[in-house]
Amino acid sequence: MRVVSNTSPLSNLAIVGRRDLLKQRYGTVRIPPAVARELPALSHPGGRTRIPAALAHGWLVVESPPASPLALPFPLDVGEAEAIALALATNVDVLLMDEKRGREAARHLGLTVAGALGELLHARQIGRVPELRSEIMRLGSEAGFFVDSKIEQFILFQVGE
Fold it and tell me: Please, which contacts does 16-19 make with residues 24 or more away whose CB atoms are closer than 8 Å?
């Protein structure tokens, strides 16, 4: 399965010690140069130290999007824009992105989008994490990840929690 990631799913999963879920599911995760530049600047030490190991092990790969301009429906930050451009250029199966406007733009351009919550849900469904509720709580407390209570209830319902 081909995947491109923006900064936040990688950093959020790395912060809570679940970065390897991406390796297990996708094998290789591609990121654009703008995302590669953002990762070392993460404020959380867990995220900052766990990401370079993924690059060193070769399953997190930096790949440049085409130089041609991308017609986005509205302005995005450079990491999001490059991730969308790379996803379109490489015809990925999924783009990992947590930011609401970035997800909206990606869907507008026909991409399938997932994020940290979706990856944790998938991992719970196949037995790689024993409990989803605690993973969501860790995302909030350790990574500062906000989850709307209705979305949390819906996701937990999917796995009977």
Answer: 16/46, 16/135, 16/138, 16/139, 16/142, 16/143, 17/46, 17/50, 18/119, 18/120, 18/123, 18/129, 18/135, 19/50, 19/51, 19/54
